Amino acid sequence: MNVRVQFHSYFKELAGCAEATEPLREGASLGELLHQLRVRFPGIKPMERSTLVAVGVEYEPPDYRLREGDEVSLFPPVQGG
Asked: pTM of the entire structure?
């Protein structure tokens, strides 16, 4: 299955792109996706403990089971204006 990942704020710079499509096995967890992203985009690894992760518009825990076509967003905990 494929999951679309969007990088927000300075995560775009850390990843080197604004979005990516990640292939995953059926039934993969959000935690598995995050591990895969940290391998593919090592610049985001130092932010591991302070990354907010949403699937669609809801924050989800690492054991959340992803589905084909899910959109996952990664962004820092504080965004100012």
From this structure: 0.91
